[in-house]
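User: For my dataset I need records formatted as: sequence, then structure tokens, nothing else. Please produce one.
Assistant:
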Amino acid sequence: MAVIVNDSNFDEIVVKSEQPVMIDFWAEWCGPCRAIAPFVEQLATEYEGKAVVGKVDIEKSPDIANRFGIRNIPTLLFFKGGELVDKQVGMTTKVTLANKLSALL
């Protein structure tokens, strides 16, 4: 299951992680976000113990969205060593996300 990331725990979960991290920025009202959500959950299970997969609800945690200039959702950010190293904006396939995450392992 994807980790719920918010304004108060972002640095602890993402920046301080020793594993690569993929964060899905989404909102309840976003159709493409709901369409990509099963991929995110599947990847959270498949990469358990190898990478962190999390979700940020931009309505509940606007500070993080502003911090990274999120203008369109879904946006998925990829971190390694606490640094932003890749991003995916908009709907995509599970394979694309898995390839981006695997490249960070």
